[in-house]
Amino acid sequence: MTIKAIKDFVESLYIDEFAISEPGEIDIEAIAFEQQAIVLEKPLNGCEAMIIGAGDKATITVNSTSDAPRKRFSVGHELGHWFKDRGKVGNLCSHSDMENPSGVSRSRENIANSYASELLIPTYLLREPLAGSRLDLDLISSVKSAFDTSFMMTLRRIITSDHHMGHFVIYRKDGSRYLFDKNSNLPGCFFPTNTVPEGSKIHDLIVNNVKSGSGEVDGSVWCREGWADDATVYEHAFQYHDDMFISLVWWKNEEPIWQCISSKEEL
């Protein structure tokens, strides 16, 4: 199952069947009901959601103690399992399954996450808020509010839309990298380093406790090779949780990226 196939399926469902033209019209429980999946809420231990299917009908149960954006993502995630394995699905999904799946279930959970992301923030409705935008906290907050999604899900969705050339990275308080996600075209030499790079705004924030916020930094800070020595990159760094810090890195001038890609293709 490809990302394009999921996008095409959701777009057809939303436009042809539900005539959805703005984010506020996305009712994930109504969409589930139309797909013969009833959504229930109750306290769950050890998982965020589960789905039990028999024939053409299913029951999705989500953790009643979770917040609203988490519940909506859980419903979307379980619907992903339902769309892919209709009639033969019975599944328990933990928080870690949805955030960072691993092992033999990785492919299945990643597909379900892709469905959830597309169902909650469909590509055709995301184009307008992204048009002419900067990759910064204001953009994430605006999209999060419009689509009623969690901060992290919104951030991932914006980055993987491939609209902005760049990435987001989370570093721990000790300066070690926790995770990152990126534009699919970004070459490896522009990936964030395993430890917070000196000269970056997130280094100022974590190491020097200087809240410099956003602005341009030397491109060499966020490039492992020499492709960006004479370039600048836009960075927005901020504290996410007590011991987690996020940096949004956006190559508004994409020339160093494409020079690197062209060079690698010639080898």
TrEMBL record:
It comes from Thalassomonas actiniarum. This is ImmA/IrrE family metallo-endopeptidase. Gene3D superfamilies: 1.10.10.2910. The lineage of its organism: Bacteria, Pseudomonadati, Pseudomonadota, Gammaproteobacteria, Alteromonadales. Residues 57-158 form the IrrE N-terminal-like domain. Pfam families: Peptidase_M78. It comes from the Bacteria.
